Automatic annotation (TrEMBL):
Keywords: Hydrolase. It comes from Rhodosorus marinus. This is 6-phosphogluconolactonase. Hydrolysis of 6-phosphogluconolactone to 6-phosphogluconate. The lineage of its organism: Eukaryota, Rhodophyta, Stylonematophyceae, Stylonematales, Stylonemataceae. GO terms for biological process: carbohydrate metabolic process; pentose-phosphate shunt. Its EC number is 3.1.1.31. InterPro entries: 6-phosphogluconolactonase_DevB, 6PGL, Glc/Gal-6P_isomerase, NagB/RpiA_transferase-like. Belongs to the glucosamine/galactosamine-6-phosphate isomerase family. 6-phosphogluconolactonase subfamily. It catalyses: 6-phospho-D-glucono-1,5-lactone + H2O = 6-phospho-D-gluconate + H(+). Residues 54-254 form the Glucosamine/galactosamine-6-phosphate isomerase domain. It comes from the Eukaryota. One of its GO terms (molecular function) is 6-phosphogluconolactonase activity.
């Protein structure tokens, strides 16, 4: 078995998905992992680390995971509440889900889809996370339009964040919303959602949805779920693909995190 640094350094294209379950607090380092090997760590929650040899394999793993979670949620409460981020995630997630075999198993009619973060642009703009998910997934499966919850881009960023927080309260419940699954990406700088390393927004604990006017990555105006929401989710799936994420992933896996889920601060 190779030490984690060797495995990560050696990947020309580094593909990883990992699942954080039930308010996980990382207290131990991953000791070793190699291509295609699954590493499970036990702590206050559970982390399943999966390194996939190809994007196709990763897409199949994600499809199997989400289908099982959707079935469990539907059996428990009649619906599956999920949030998606942007970037390469929608395409990776949708690749297998839109095939006939998976569409028959996914029970999309029970899905309620929110967005972990969004750019304050028109919904048909090329930078819109909703627009990307619509092209890759929504247009190809039978999720009812009334169960997909985009932002209102006609509002100011502050008003948009407040309105989206109200939408979460109406659709999921008062207080901190509890998602069945959050699907998140990781940027080369280690950011997730629109929570960027070193940004004051990382300290936001009173709001479920916050706005940002000075995102280090364009476009600058965005809305995002906050850390309390990420930490409340039943399962959080981080999906990272490509060699540009290698350094960020190495750093995240090495750091002893003080509480729950934190991107590098």
């Amino acid at each position: 078995e190779a030490h984690e640094d060797t495995a990560i350094e050696g990947e020309e294209i580094f593909l990883m998905g990992f699942v954080v379950s039930n308010s996980f607090t990382l207290r131990r380092r991953v000791q070793s992992c190699s291509r295609g090997r699954s590493v499970t760590m036990q702590s206050e929650g559970r982390i399943d680390l999966q390194i996939s040899a190809t994007k196709d394999i990763l897409s199949k793993q994600l499809a199997e995971f989400v289908i099982q979670k959707a079935a469990d949620a539907k059996k428990e409460k009649g619906k599956f509440v999920v949030a998606l981020s942007g970037g390469s995630l929608p395409k990776t997630l949708a690749k297998e889900l839109v095939t006939d075999d998976y569409k028959e198993r996914a029970e999309f009619s029970s899905w309620h889809v929110y967005f972990a973060d969004e750019r304050c642009v028109p919904l048909d703009h090329e930078d819109s996370n909703y627009g990307l998910s619509k092209t890759e997934l929504f247009d190809k499966v039978n999720i009812p339009a009334s169960q997909i919850y985009p932002i209102d881009p006609s509002l100011s960023p502050e008003e948009c964040a407040a309105a989206y927080a109200k939408s979460l309260e109406t659709g999921i419940g008062e207080g901190i919303p509890v998602f069945d699954v959050l699907f998140l990406g990781i940027g080369p700088d280690g950011h997730t959602c629109s929570l960027f390393p070193g940004h004051p927004l990382l300290q936001e604990n009173s709001k479920t949805v916050a706005h940002i006017l000075d995102s280090p990555k364009p476009p600058p105006q965005r809305v995002t779920l906050t850390y309390p929401v990420l930490n409340a989710a039943k399962d959080v799936v981080f999906v990272s693909t490509g060699s540009s994420k290698k350094d960020a992933m190495r750093s995240i896996l090495k750091v002893r995190l003080g509480s729950h889920i934190n991107s590098p601060r």
